[in-house]
Amino acid sequence: MKRVRIIPFVLLLPACIDPTVEPELSDEESWRADPAELELACSVSVIPKQTPDSPSQLRVSVVNLGDSPAQFVARNLPFASPEREYFTVDRGDQPVDFWGLRVKLEAPTEADLVELDAGDALATVYTLSDYYHLDQPGTYDIALLRPSVHVFGAEGIRKVELACNAVELELAKAEPPPEPLIEPDSPGQKSAEGASFKDCDAHQQAEILRAEAVAKWMLPIALGTHTFGRSQVAADSKYYDEWFGAHTTDRAQKVDEKLDKIVEGLDEGIEYKCHSKTERKCEKGTIAWVIPVLSDKVHLCERFFEKDDVGWDTKWGILVHEFSHLFALTHDYEYGRPDSLALADNQPNKAVKNADNYEYFVEDIYLGLAPRHDVDGDGHSDLVTTAWGSGFVYPGKSTSTFGSYVASFAGTMNTALFDGAGHWLLDVVDMNLDGHDDLVTIGSDGVMYVYFGTASGTVYTGVVEAGLDGGDNLDLVFDDGVGYEPIGVADTNGNLAPDLVTIRDDGAVCWFGGLNGGLSGSKVCTAGLIDSAFMDGVGEHVIDLADVNGDRRADLIAAADDGTVYVYTGTAGGSFGAGVGSFAGTYNLALYDGFGHEPIGVADVTGDGRADLVTHHHVSNNTYVYPGQANATFGSGVPSFAGTMNSSLFDQTGHELIGVFDVDGNGLADLVTHAGGNAFVYRGTQNGQFTSGGVSFSGTLNSSRFDGDGHEFITERRQHRRRGCTPTGCL
After folding, report:
1. In Å, how far are 275, 555, 585, 634, 647 from 596, measured between CA atoms?
2. What sign for the dihedral angle of Cα 517, 523, 528, 531?
3. Are the beta carbons of 318 and 359 closer than 8 angstroms?
4. Ordered DSSP codes for 365-434
């Protein structure tokens, strides 16, 4: 924390204060303050010109009116790093070009704090014409862009608004343009992907290209420009409302236009320059910066490469932030998720011009609509199988087909599906949050294995989790009906890390928290929640783990033998809420007797950010999509195929219904089936119907269903469907 001791406020009127003097460091290491006790007054004034040719200058002051020292972060005010954007400057109704830096900043830390004694002031002189192009005489309206400070209270960082006045600058004649903040530079090294690099090593170039690729496939998903895509700028988008406020045609059009400009700008190719953390422009928490008016170059500080690939403030999301500055001329009215959310609620006209709102908008869409089972991380769900001891990843393509396989394990992966010995193939999900989905298995010995996915599509041993049950390995129910039934792996508590979910033989749903590619050691059991029908056919058949109500926590979905489908909502603590029922006893489960509904999976077919229940009906031969609702129920079913889709589950004729995942990469989950050695992809649409897609393998891909000779489809829910059932049922 920096202790600022400045001459009393009444003596700040002369323009002789040196704004470059660095405050002395305090001996205090940390502090906590009540924001309500902060009493700061803010003042902006125009300094009279000494001569007609003098530059236009402002004086900005903050005084502590309280009776005790005030501690706060003042980075939203121009007391340091003056080349950043601190003001809105307009001549009439036209904004003035800003020639300085628009930056992406880290969240403030206690190291950024200053302390201002009672009655003292913090002040600076800001030369406006150094950064704003005052190219015409007239009246300029000037106000602080972010009139606020941040404080650290008992609940963490909070923003405190300041009542800062606006001013008018009367300019008798135009002033010279600002001096460019960057010197001319030689062209960077151009990559095959079209990007250019300056002072970036090979690892940094690879990280940038990976981040740029994710941004490029997420932006069209947000716009809905893919075939059958759904615009998330539309009035019914939950993502739009969250980040841009109440939907109006005018504001939505502005968001659409800015996203379009970003996509168009990316088509031209971007030049990136890498900087060390010690360079001046990378100090004070700067992650990345651009100078939109003068350059189309994106400058990346070392902090950029420390960011995650999945979540918020990711590498690719930060690029979207900077792209919005470059191509859509967004501002930085607010930084961070809490303040950007508040901006959308309270000042939506500013939210549609704020860079962080665009970043978090597309990052949230990624978390809701990114394809499942995407091992190579290219934005398309892959078909993941095992056969003859090897694992196979067939990469998904935008044509709704699958490419040539990439193999792993070289004959050493023994599946337990038919003989109970070896690996139970549980799920394909991104455990280590690197943008590549991983294979998760549980051995017949009760040990959990995570095989990390790679950009090439191969997987390798990453994490081995033994002793999950109080130091003992999990005792699995498959042998004698005693112990734990593994359900799947998904983020049920909303911290991004996927969690292992099981059902114990006493009906408790037991949750094992995820962390760093494996498990954290945390275990929460919700007693008596589900009587699983997996072993004895009585009770509830678990269908899937997916986010039905759109709260960013996966829920547990199960169909009961009384004709009701229940959604047990995930919670932040790892437990599950009481079941929310749908269908009122009318959902007859075909797994019991071969008639009625065969659950295929739960995934977002409609692209509204809520997972939908997808089933096949064995009497009508239709497939139905029941849209997920915000109250954790399912809406009315939307049929597809008009009675022509036959399932092979009971009689070995027709289609094996593998699952529902986004093969074409448009943000809507597709139905994937297998028949006659072929894989079929039926594209999802926003109205819930499936339409024709692509066919792969030309009759060469054999399924292991019924005889064990061929490919076990890991993405097929659940194990008895992979094995196949008798004409009288599965349970």
Report:
1. 62, 24, 12, 17, 12
2. positive
3. yes
4. HHHHHSPTT-SS-SSSPPEEEEETTEEEEE-B-TTS-B---EEESTT---B-TTTS-SEEEEEEE-SS-S
How far apart, in whole angstroms, are the C-alpha atoms of residue 719 and residue 722?
A: 5
Calculate the alpha carbon distances from 501 to 117, 456, 517, 542, 549 in Å. 54, 29, 15, 11, 18
What is the distance between the alpha carbons of residues 581 and 65, in angstroms, rounded to a whole number? 57
CA 517, 519, 522, 523 torsion-angle sign: positive
How far is Cα of residue 487 from the mean position of the Cα atoms in its chain? 24
26 CB-side CA count, 13 A: 19
Give CA–CA dist 531/422, Å, rounded.
26
Read off the amino acid at residue 719. Q
Among 593, 500, 497, which residue's Cα sits nearest to residue 541? 593
Four-point Cα dihedral 351, 356, 357, 363, nearest 10 = 180
Q: Give start and end residues of each alpha helix (H) in 224-280.
A: 238-244, 249-267
In the chain, how long is the greatest CA-to-CA distance?
Answer: 96
CA distance 160 to 72: 9
Is beta strand 390-394 parallel, antiparallel or unpaired with respect to 406-408?
antiparallel
> Pick from 487, 412, 474, 470: which is nearest to 446 by CA?
474
User: What average pLDDT score do residues 130-146 get?
Assistant: 94
Which tens digits make up the pLDDT trace of 235-266?
Answer: 989 999 999 999 999 999 999 999 999 999 99
Residue 159 tokens, joined: 């923003």
CA-to-CA distance for 415 and 386, rounded, in angstroms?
8
534 in Cβ contact with 485 (< 8 Å): yes
Residue type, 450: V
Name the token pair of 630: 């915000």
Tell me what the mean pLDDT of segment 699-706 comes to: 95
Let me know: does 565 contact 544? Beta carbons within 8 Å: no
24 falls in which pLDDT band (50, 70, 90)? very low
Query: What's the alpha-carbon Rg for the chain, to the nearest Å?
Result: 29
CA distance 417 to 723: 7
Look up tokens 């089933």; give the residue. 615
Q: Which amino acid is at 42?
A: C
Q: Could you give the CA distance from residue 271 to residue 296 in angstroms, rounded to a whole number?
A: 7
Q: In what order do the strands lie in the sheet with 57-64?
A: 40-47, 57-64, 121-127
Closest CA to 309 of 209, 196, 427, 199: 209
User: Pairing between strand 271-275 and 297-301?
Assistant: parallel
Contact 540, 558 (CB under 8 A): yes
pLDDT number for residue 592 = 84
**Residue 609 clears pLDDT 50, i.e. is over it:** yes
